[in-house]
């Protein structure tokens, strides 16, 4: 049996435009960003399907490769409900221009055959859009809509945190433990301050903390 491709000469393309928003992979194939990072280097060199929200779109860079050629690089940062940061690299110029139109907190992306690799410099997993990758923008699924609502709430909470008024440091006298800070933050909706003696166990300068509390703010003094 042979197949034949014919030119569609009817001007009704708008009727089929919704097909561009239907994901190319079933929802059970999506993996979580947390699983990508927790795997260490095990998933490096593999392809995956991912549903994520755009958190940040960086400027396009002109990079000189190891063989001396110039290439365009666009990096975006995506997030899901399990982890706030995954860097996705785009080397295609046309797709980079398309990515510049993506809006943080609003654009949801469905990736099919997204390539994963271990970034030696960042010492973490990153993703690369390859020639096998298919990207569906703002897919029309319940999961995508739910993730959009989550991203909007999560990032709005972060911006609110930056507006907290910081009192005179000499007036802060209460000493609390980490546990007490968390307990009090759930007991009151008002801002409070305290002195906290603790050891920094994790310091992530590339991404947001998975836990964002708008009721209290940490001031580090060195």
UniProtKB/TrEMBL annotation:
<dbReference type="GO" id="GO:0003697">
    <property type="term" value="F:single-stranded DNA binding"/>
</dbReference>
<protein>
    <submittedName>
        <fullName>Uncharacterized protein</fullName>
    </submittedName>
</protein>
<dbReference type="InterPro" id="IPR012340">
    <property type="entry name" value="NA-bd_OB-fold"/>
</dbReference>
<dbReference type="InterPro" id="IPR052469">
    <property type="entry name" value="MEIOB"/>
</dbReference>
<dbReference type="GO" id="GO:0000712">
    <property type="term" value="P:resolution of meiotic recombination intermediates"/>
</dbReference>
<dbReference type="GO" id="GO:0008310">
    <property type="term" value="F:single-stranded DNA 3'-5' DNA exonuclease activity"/>
</dbReference>
